[in-house]
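REVIEWER CHECKLIST
Item 1: Sequence provided? yes
Item 2: Single chain? yes
Item 3: Sequence as submitted:
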Amino acid sequence: MTSNSGDQLWQGHLRGSKSYQRILLALACAGVATFAQLYSLQGVLPLLAADLRVSAAEAALSVSTATIGLAIAVIPWSALADRIGRLRAMSIAVIAATVLGLLVPLMPTLSSILLLRFFEGLALGGIPALALAYLTEEVHRMHAAIAAGSYVAGTTIGGLSGRVIAGPIGDLAGWRTGVLLVSLLATMASAGFILLAPKQRGFVRLGKAAEGSPGLLSRLGSNLKNPGLLALYAQGFLLMGGFVAVYNYLGFRLEAAPFLLPTAVTSLLFLAYLAGTFSSRLVGSLSARFGRRNMLALSTLVMALGVALTMVPTVLMVLFGLLVLTAGFFAAHAVASGWAPARASVGRAQAASLYNLCYYAGSSLIGWWGGLVFQQLGWNALALTVIALALLATLWAWFALRPSTDGPSAAHSVGTV
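Item 4: Structure as written out by the authors:
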């Protein structure tokens, strides 16, 4: 791979090198900064709903508006990064998001919170839009699947920390205090990313690429015509949508009869994210051995099983089901998100961005719509809906990602990103 810096034979950092470790640590910090802020309000939705006197679905819009903003922004961020570089674009994004995140707890009304959260999502879009493209260009292809799993594991730590800090603190001192503390954590993580990330060496600036290279619309069109990539985008939309719907409304279920648990306790359910931290790292190694397609299908079926277990009306079984669901979801996400830029023959940043657009569109739309199902028909109806989405995703991927139709990455579809 050629690069802007003159590394004509640049192949990427090898696993075990200092630069490889710095990339993983930097992206872990970026994951914490991004996902702690993005989902901190999810840990205090019942408190926010009570304080502002709004319904569960209305409160959940504080999560959905941020993810809508993120979904809208990922493609513009990828285009900007093609011009100024992945690392510079990510640094701008994380700084802007941190400033906006510090202002959210100061907003007095739901409408003002939603507006600021939308702009915060626009800024946050620069991290997931570019992280895997940056990783793919800077890490040797032999180690890229494992590195991608490590990055997704870092995002789970971010999502977990935001929810687990905001919930208990919010129960004691108000949801605004809990969210503010998460924003301060994100500020420190942002600084860690900027200080740790090594200089990019595999990036080719679009403006200096060979004459006749495809433009943005051409790169997007190429990725949207690829049936395998469309199947991977569907995984993001369907699985993330169902996953967020479960986490958005499980707290409301457990704080109502017959469970009657306080917010400080229900927010600890987000510790189930640790199962995703483990599974997303493990699936990288297993994909290299058994193939991405097989591991994607298995992970999604595990997710569906976990959702089914949450229908059993005991706290212990709900918790166990949440652990299984979370492990399966993050394993599937690690496979699909890493596979998308690998399949692209052109426009890797756009391939990753389209995946993230669908991923967060699912979070926004299904995450909100699931609340209407929950409010009208109850938890079991919501759970069955999420299971149906997971099964649809499995069938779509299984038939669209057959080895014989694996596209440009067929020759090395196992163990590379």
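Item 5: Key structural point noted by reviewer: The longest helix spans residues 144-173.
Item 6: Recommendation: ____
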